[in-house]
Amino acid sequence: MKSKGYMAFLVGGALRDLMRDTQPRDYDVVTNASIEQIRLIFRNSKTIGKRFPIVHTYFAGDVIEISSLKSDDAEDVGESQRELLVADANLRDFTINAIYYDIRTFEVIDPLGAIKHLEEKVLVPIGDPYERFREDPVRMIRAVKLSERHGFTIEPELERIIHELGDTMLEIGPGRKYEELTRILLSDYAVEVVTRLRNLGVFRFLWPAGESLLAERGPAILEQARIPVPVHYSRGSFSKETHMKLWLGLFMLSGHQPGTSGKYERAVLDDFLDPLGMPFRNPVVDCLVCLGQLMAQKGAFGGMPLNGEVSNLVEFYVGYFDPKLSHQLEQFHKHHASAKKGRSRRPGEKGKPSGGKRPRGRRRRRRRPAK
């Protein structure tokens, strides 16, 4: 950005963590370039979000998030750097996320006096917290994560407001709810964050089935589901395998007894996840049907096709959660291998011809071209 003549500032969590001698997990950059101009500079990128669009750029497997400096005034052309940063800072969530680092001058810029809050480890919302949380209810989740993961204090009045606005979680889209919750559940601080969200009356609006599950089984079930899941990344996000194994484990730990009907399994899984917009459901459903067949010890296994993705999920579940099914799983693989071998032969073919060569078919006569 700098080499193209644009302003560029490191901002948000990365700068906050660096100032606290903590290794950042990701990096956010803001610039006076537009989203379209950012995309022209970084070809290997994509735009995420509609209301608050950001550009994901990829470097050696890492993702850098770049956004345009925000302003309430659309006519910001000609504004000074100071005015742009103040306008951008006033539209952020908490003061500790509104500190900027200028890569040209190596200067830390603090337009809202947030360094004091950073040193005191206190969360101070920018502007009216009612307005900020209604504008984007995910900010309430972010407040709890900052408190439980980094030790920032949420003042009693702010806790009261979060409790009062808990039902605004219903306004968050299914996909965003799923992404936020999955990130929490795969973290080392999942139990602490979820427990705090429940105590604040927020979690039941985020994932109703999860609220019932935790009320019945306790928060330890979250660790049971998370610990065996291999955390892999794909272009800065959790891999498909990681997503599927986490939610398969949670679903089965909830006490679900799988059957052999894909339609039934899909309906029950959908009820469990509602209103979370989880992708990748089909392999999980196929895995549940396989597990239902294993538990029923059906010798024919319903003739169900078993691809590598589903097989991986089945082996994961059996290996970590139900080793008693190991023998049935071995028989399942033998059946599948035998069925596959049988399908590879031609109808009526009893074995290889002598010499191991296929019999040659009759050669077709070539038609002469018309005169």
TrEMBL record:
- Domain named Poly A polymerase head is located at 8-123
Q: Where is the composition biased (Basic residues)?
A: 334-345, 355-371
Q: Which UniProt keywords apply?
A: Nucleotide-binding, RNA-binding, Transferase
Q: Where is the tRNA nucleotidyltransferase/poly(A) polymerase RNA and SrmB- binding domain?
A: 151-210
Which residue stretches belong to region Disordered?
334-371
Record InterPro entries: NT_sf (IPR043519), PolA_pol_head_dom (IPR002646), PolyA_RNA-bd (IPR032828), tRNA_ntf/polyA_polymerase_I (IPR052191)
Question: From the UniProt record, which GO molecular function terms apply?
Answer: nucleotide binding; nucleotidyltransferase activity; RNA binding
GO BP annotations, alphabetical order: RNA processing
Coiled coil location: none
Name the family the entry cites: Belongs to the tRNA nucleotidyltransferase/poly(A) polymerase family.
Q: What is this protein called?
A: Poly(A) polymerase
